[in-house]
């Protein structure tokens, strides 16, 4: 492991060995919360190892102990809880939580698991070790990207409320929607890593990606709308590192990381021999794919030279006749995790919500203090700073920053001039924070 260690090798091995799938009814229980904390520690250690480039033992442990399928099952279980139980929970007459932190932890669990998968799926052996659950993960990514594409037509995700009198549940629902946006972006990266393994995927999985979900066309739609970029006050911003960041004028022609993930996924799905043999280029698919030609500029290809091959493929596609839809009889596997969970818990959603409200989401003050103490020990400041993917950016112009706001210690600037220009925007958040970064 790297120089900065959150877990010793023996601890990491024990935590990975202990990973297991929980019934939906136990979501939020003491055992479930302990595993959530363990996953957070594994998540942070995996990021530290990847940043240090000194081997990635968390990834190796997950493969060795066969725990990647367990992570996929946990991911889909908490997704179902959010869709089936959380809305019912919010409508219960006696649902008046004094503290929403326990529920927030459940909502955050999905982000924790997908973040860990994003970190380790860079390695092909992790994808292969997912076994049959890779198809369930493909379906999961498709659901998230479909919602992301739909959101891009409705506008940007909501900003966090800064008013002091926002009801706790309203704030929680806003946080859940913001989290859903970030989860979808992580799912995009996971899907791209799966396409890196297209030569070793089963025919059923390839058919699911190309025929059932038509992922190439969905990726074109995402590239068109680019939901991870926006303009605010005439300034270009990109969503990166969990926040919207200004893009400096000198970097606006630079391909963003998320755009790069889409292009690489498209390259893998359209140009690999295995995928080309399975993908039916119908009239609709041809029309969608040819939209890519407008984006393939010389500047873009200079940054990702492999896209020259994709440009050649599109030039050939423009002259080719579209193919009729295939009507082959194909016997294939189908994903089973979502359907099994839905079948096992059908008709139990309200009873589950009532049970969890009484036993999981109504903690005493003593329980909350203990939980807060455990999280404070997990989220060490030195670990969090080491996990930062890159140097901080100026809140005003987007350039690399080396100076912090001296009062709140939260916002970064490249120079005094930018700090002065940004003060009117930053003041409201800054005055709510005591010197040294503590919330008042």
From TrEMBL:
Chief site of localization: cytoplasm
The family this protein is said to belong to: Belongs to the ZMYND10 family.
Record's subcellular location: Cytoplasm, Cytoskeleton, Microtubule organizing center, Centrosome, Centriolar satellite; Dynein axonemal particle
PROSITE patterns: ZF_MYND_1, ZF_MYND_2
The protein's name in its UniProt record: Zinc finger MYND domain-containing protein 10
Keyword field contains Cytoplasm: yes
Keyword terms, alphabetized: Cytoplasm, Metal-binding, Zinc, Zinc-finger
Source lineage: Eukaryota, Metazoa, Chordata, Craniata, Vertebrata
Native source organism of the sequence: Pipistrellus nathusii
Residues annotated as domain MYND-type: 394-430
Keyword Zinc-finger: yes
Record's function text: Plays a role in axonemal structure organization and motility. Involved in axonemal pre-assembly of inner and outer dynein arms (IDA and ODA, respectively) for proper axoneme building for cilia motility. May act by indirectly regulating transcription of dynein proteins.
Pfam families for this protein: zf-MYND (PF01753)
């Amino acid at each position: 492991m790297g120089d900065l260690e959150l877990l010793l090798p023996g601890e990491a091995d024990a935590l990975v060995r202990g990973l297991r799938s929980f019934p939906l009814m136990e979501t939020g229980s003491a055992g479930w919360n302990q595993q959530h904390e363990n996953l957070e520690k594994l998540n942070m250690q995996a990021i530290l190892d990847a940043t240090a480039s000194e081997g990635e033992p968390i990834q190796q442990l997950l493969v060795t102990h066969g725990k990647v399928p367990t992570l996929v099952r946990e991911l889909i279980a908490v997704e179902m809880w959010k869709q089936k139980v959380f809305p019912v929970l919010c409508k219960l007459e006696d649902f008046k939580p004094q503290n929403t932190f326990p529920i927030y932890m459940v909502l955050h669990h999905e982000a924790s698991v997908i973040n860990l998968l994003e970190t380790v799926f860079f390695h092909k052996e992790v994808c292969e070790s997912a076994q049959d659950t890779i198809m369930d993960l493909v379906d999961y990514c498709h659901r998230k990207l479909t919602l992301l594409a739909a959101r891009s037509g409705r506008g940007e995700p909501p900003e966090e409320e800064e008013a002091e009198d926002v009801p706790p549940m309203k704030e929680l629902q806003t946080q859940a929607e913001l989290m859903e946006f970030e989860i979808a972006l992580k799912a995009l990266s996971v899907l791209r890593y799966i396409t890196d393994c297209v030569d070793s995927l089963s025919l059923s999985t390839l058919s699911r990606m190309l025929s059932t979900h038509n992922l190439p066309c969905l990726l074109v739609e995402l590239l068109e709308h680019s939901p991870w970029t926006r303009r605010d006050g005439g300034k270009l911003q990109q969503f990166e590192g969990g926040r919207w960041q200004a893009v400096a004028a000198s970097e606006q022609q630079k391909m963003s990381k998320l755009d790069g993930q889409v292009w690489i996924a498209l390259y893998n799905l359209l140009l690999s021999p295995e995928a080309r043999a399975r993908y039916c280029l119908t009239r609709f698919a041809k029309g969608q794919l040819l939209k890519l030609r407008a984006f393939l500029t010389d500047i873009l290809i200079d940054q990702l030279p492999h896209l020259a091959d994709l440009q050649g493929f599109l030039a050939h596609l423009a002259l080719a006749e579209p193919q009729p839809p295939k009507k082959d009889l194909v016997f294939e596997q189908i994903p089973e995790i979502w359907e099994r969970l839905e079948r096992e818990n059908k008709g139990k959603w309200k009873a589950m919500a009532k049970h969890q409200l009484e036993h999981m989401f109504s903690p005493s003050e003593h329980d909350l203090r203990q939980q807060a103490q455990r999280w404070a020990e997990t989220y060490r400041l030195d670990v969090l700073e080491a996990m930062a993917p890159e140097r901080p950016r100026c809140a005003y112009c987007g350039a690399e920053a080396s100076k912090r706001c001296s009062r709140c210690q939260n916002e970064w600037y490249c120079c005094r001039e930018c700090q002065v220009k940004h003060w009117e925007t930053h003041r409201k958040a800054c005055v709510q924070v005591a010197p040294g970064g503590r919330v008042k």
